[in-house]
Amino acid sequence: MSKLKICVVLWMLLWAGAVHAGPNSYRQQFPLPSPSVPGSLGVNIHFTTPRPGEVAQLAGAGFKWIRLDFFWAGIERERGKYDFTLYANLLAQLKAAGIRAIFILDYGNDLYEKGSPRSPEAREPFARFAAAAVTRFCGQGIVWEMWNEPNIQFWQPKPNVDEYITLALETGKAIRKAAPEEWFVGPGMSGMDFPFLERCFKAGLLNYWDAVSFHPYRNTPPETAAADFAHVRVLIDTYAPERSHVPIFSSEWGYSELYPGLNRERQGWYIARQSLSNLANGLVISIWYDWHDDGVDPKEPEHHFGTVSTDYREKETYRAIQTLTRTLNGFALNKRLSLPSPDDYCLLFTRGTQTALAVWTSSRTPHSVVLPLGGAKAAIVSYLGKSSVGTSLPNGLTLTLTEAPQYVLPVKPDPRLATAAAWFSLPPFLQVGDLKDEKVLLEASTGSFPAAKGRVSFQKQDGDAAGSVQKTVMTLPVTFSKTIRVPAEINTLVDRSATPRRYRVNLTMPGVQPVAQEILLVSRRPIQMTVLPPVGRTLPIQITNRSGFPFNGRIFVTSGRETREAGGEEQIVPVVFARGEREKLFTVTRNSFNALVGAVLEEPADGGFRPIVTSPPTFFQSFALPGSSNGGEIAIEKPFSVVPDGDPKIDSQIQTSQEMAPAGLPVNGLRAEKIAYDFQPGWKFLRVLPEGKLKAPLAGEPSALGMWVYSDGSGDALRARFTDTTGQTFQPQADNLDWKGWRYVTFSLRDAPGHWGGADDGKVHLPIHLDTLLLIDSPGGRGGKGEIYFTPPTVMWQYPDAGK
User: Fold this and answer.
1) Nearest to 546, CA basis, from 647, 637, 708, 431
2) What is the Cα–Cα distance from 631 to 669, expressed in whole angstroms?
3) Would you place residue 238 in the very low, low, confident or very high pLDDT band (cuts 50, 70, 90)?
4) Rounded Cα distance, 316 and 300, in Å
């Protein structure tokens, strides 16, 4: 009997007469892990024949997964003949070391078609190759990933989501027919390309994928990916409503030690923090890029992602992940506990009755906190394995947090941590509102102590400062061993804005000091409103209705500092969204606008209207290109220049010109700057530098920099830069260039997740200077190509700062 028939018969026997596989099913023998150490952690490799001792060195770091290209062209060198020898040999060595594989089904085969398999004549052989692969290696715990970064240049001749979807669907059907229980995931996309991901979901790929994989590269700290992971979960919940849970994981992500603001030491911090924060966000697998450095060029970032050097000497990065996997070996993530500042991280792990904490801060400033221990001694282990002993007082253990993770292991069972461990883990992000009965949010089990009654309270947090808790806004009784449903009153804790509201949720039990978690609540049907700079006699107002539910309301526009109640200048614009409409541009026309403009979005309520989103009065200062008929803007000679940046050895082509703007702006007759660019892979990007008046210090405390950007959907990253009076550089970011047409883009001038130089404390010291109006970069340095237009920039101040 053929291998294919054996696999099919095996799975038929396992699945016959039952919806769920039996107790000896393959998926129960080789499950996807729950968030745990070291079971969730792995690394990318680029070899099929390891050097002597290399697999042992991989295992010595604690990695339980490797990820590797499974090259079609290298395996099928003659039509219909497959040579899997190298991969079989590698798998045998990995199995002996307790390491599982993620194999990437990828890339083209010139036997059938140049570039990626786009035609039926190439798609069918690729799907046949994938079926042959899963048949050959079925039952070995492999995760098969559908391509590597198909949303950028790894799909040839150029990225095309429809071509990728067609191939992925055909491949998914072939795999499910050949070996139904093999793990099949996708799309392994570059960056957080949400439009690409949503197109995949809409096309039905969640019917074939067992998990969703992505590569969330960034120049900002690992913790900044949390909002992106929440967005992925929302998309999955939207398009896979019948499935109880679709896991997500990062199948490639790392930091070069040559990234701005990084070095070898910080890279070591980041491998641990990335692994830990991924666990905290529910990712079941986290693959670090890369196993070893790819070169020795001291100026080439692509050469310095490794955990070991080119000659396999262990870097701080290796020792940091080794310390994590050894210190927390066998521990499963239980939950993140809340400390007074959301910048501070305290992850609770459990292994049987044992508990442990992983703690650090994303703040650049070391500071003391009180950890929720109940008076016992604890071992404190540094990120590189140095150990000391600390003794907690009854109210907790005082410890200085730094950006380097530390691990705290109580010497004996700690009652306070036992209480925290028995408490149901809150999701980091929850949509609420418009439902009479919320999902189970708070649940408790008896754990290792008798059932007891206590209370849970919600405290509103106002942002990022320690001691930011404002007040208790809701208190619920709780009894361990019972399920608690949060009442509909939780809807009142959020408004209709798209901004998540942070709450600290405290659990208080008799005789035990309180423990706390954090949760972000956001409306299920959020509405976002952005008042854009006036253009001549036109004030554009952009409204985003993310849920696509019908909406009727109105915009109440005011000019001047006066509020509506004070009788300021007013104008009302009706707002109507039909089902499925998600974004519209509304306009207000007047002969003139005061410098300060504000707006309130209202919806019908109780025979009148109630405000749901408020835009504060804002002062706009815009700059026009010579020859523009923008009306009221300041025309200055060439307010910017465009230059390449990064590694000078990496080739790039940049062409600029001033042209009439393409159709789609609120008014006609505007001129725009056009940039066509083409970067080769590596550390290469372009910067739009301010000139003339834009180089002067900005008065007061400006809130944002903005401009209209016309995108061709390249998916490249879009950023800006500003510097403060200490010389510290901040790099705010906007959405990637994943849309087509015009969109108004804003960059915060009050904070940014990425910063370096000067005071290097993450605080903006006024006054500030604009350093880079636009920065276009390819995610992960994979190379980028595109064409954009942009209008001259606008700087914004929000009242009361506008009057300074």
Assistant:
1) 431
2) 11
3) confident
4) 19
